[in-house]
């Protein structure tokens, strides 16, 4: 018995520790790389062979000699083209169309990877035991999983996407959870709920009828797979989804067990954080009791490219406060920048948010920024720009640990009031500290959770047991529309039967009254006197 147990344990350890894992992050941002990188290094430390595909070369501090980095030149070219000035698109109210640009970019990424000779030959000859795929527009990697006969997982870098309820068989709670792609505030009005109901169906149909056929064609030609099932069928084989979100900062929703929360995966332990640059440390330490606020709008938002009027609103508001600001700013310092604002091209964000003198964080509401702020109990002023940032900002304000300001209609009064309230109203800091406790209170650390579930998939060569059977249902069955339609048909049928019966009864009553009246008139009316006729025949002809 002991020998048998030892043999099984040895076999399991060999399967788990020596696995070849491919991280497929073709369509992604550098922020996505930052999010998942701790999992990459943890798996390498446990003896796995990790290959990481992305358009971004790692910074010096992130390089790991044990990780095979793939950066196909065609992929780098496609992703480096970017998406234009996202802040300008916000001001033009065209930022929501970025989601559709991303769809098109996903197909371009697939073509760039698999039509380039070197990368195509690499994937034709490679072998992997597991694929971990960025969940947004990297569906062409499903074909690789099929080629290698390997299970695959998704890494969700945002909230649940619109097409996932129908893909993975859970109910889309569109009556109250806002669309992640749209700028919608709660509670949802009727027309917003109509949009919220129809938009997921639109995305589901668009992916299946437009995106998947294009990717399918690219994969069959590049990998020479002639009998590969359609991508929509392969997608249903998803073993697990590591979701970078947590119930404390997300709308409570019903999810099947294949969704595993690993929010805060990238958050560093206090002893492992990088120190602040000396000049930044000195600047914030000299802030004395007033403290300071930190400002960052992420790498894709370029404030210096905006109009003087727009910039002057920011500078005037910041200069009017008797506290210091540290602004993560990659451009040359503008002459109009107030003296109480320090601009720096780089600052370790997690370190500065953990500083005891920080009073608040002015942010674009990127998910990682929100998580880092919550983890350190720092209240927020959020100015969302694009992607899911409106969705994040809505939750921040609704849960009471921050204030939302519309950047497209930026006014001095609105921004000034928001900053003043964060600095002077204790309720925001108190709520932020409460949220921090909720966010951090878990049975396992996010990284430990991610590693355990990754190896769970490896141990069991997939985990289809975590996917609900409703995945095989049609979209109308999943919403019980066929049942409601059947019940309504019965009600409608009974109403028709009731109407016909009542009509016949009324006709019989009117006919009986008319006959009775005529019979009475024959016996009781004297000759020559006028006869009074009841209007029964007229009523019967006109209304019945």
Task: List strands and helices in order, with pairings.
Layout: H1 2-17, E1 20-24, H2 30-45, E2 49-53, E3 67-70, H3 73-80, H4 86-91, H5 98-114, H6 117-125, E4 130-134, H7 141-148, E5 152-156, H8 164-168, H9 190-223, H10 231-235, E6 240-243, E7 259-261, H11 278-285, E8 292-296, H12 308-319, E9 324-328, E10 341-344, H13 349-353, E11 358-363, H14 367-375, E12 380-382, H15 389-399, E13 402-404, H16 412-424, H17 426-440, H18 446-460, H19 475-478, H20 481-524, H21 536-543
Parallel strand pairs: 1-2, 1-4, 2-3, 4-5, 5-6, 6-7, 8-9, 8-11, 9-10, 11-12, 12-13
Keywords: Glycosyltransferase, Membrane, Transferase, Transmembrane, Transmembrane helix
GO molecular function: UDP-glycosyltransferase activity
Protein name: Glucuronosyltransferase
Task: Write a structural description.
A seven-stranded parallel β-sheet has the order 3-2-1-4-5-6-7, with helices on both faces. The protein has a six-stranded parallel β-sheet with strand order 10-9-8-11-12-13, with helices on both faces. With 544 residues, the protein is of the alpha/beta class. Strand 8 (292-296), helix 12 and strand 9 (324-328) form a beta-alpha-beta unit. Residues 1-14 have low confidence and may be disordered. It has three domains: 20-266 and 454-478, 3-Layer(aba) Sandwich (Rossmann fold), CATH 3.40.50.2000; 270-440, Rossmann fold (3-Layer(aba) Sandwich), CATH 3.40.50; 481-543. It has helices at residues 2-17, 30-45, 73-80, 86-91, 98-114, 117-125, 141-148, 164-168, 190-223, 231-235, 278-285, 308-319, 349-353, 367-375, 389-399, 412-424, 426-440, 446-460, 475-478, 481-524, 536-543, and strands at residues 20-24, 49-53, 67-70, 130-134, 152-156, 240-243, 259-261, 292-296, 324-328, 341-344, 358-363, 380-382, 402-404. GO terms for molecular function: UDP-glycosyltransferase activity. The chain crosses the membrane at residues 483-502. Residues 531-544 have a biased composition (Basic residues). Pfam families: UDPGT (PF00201).
